[in-house]
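Sequence in, structure out.
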Amino acid sequence: MDELKSEEWKFEIILASFKTGSTIPESRCDELLSMVRNWAEENGWGVVASYNEHKGKGHS
């Protein structure tokens, strides 16, 4: 894990749909990331973030 400054936090989040055969549109991922960035900016913080398709096994 990268060494972080004491005022930094690192999150790893997997966003998944639990409905069989359902996928989350990329536009909704853009929307979520935008909401997080806006919230951070409103509080005087910054966010460095990106997303990609998770190729791991689904949740049971």
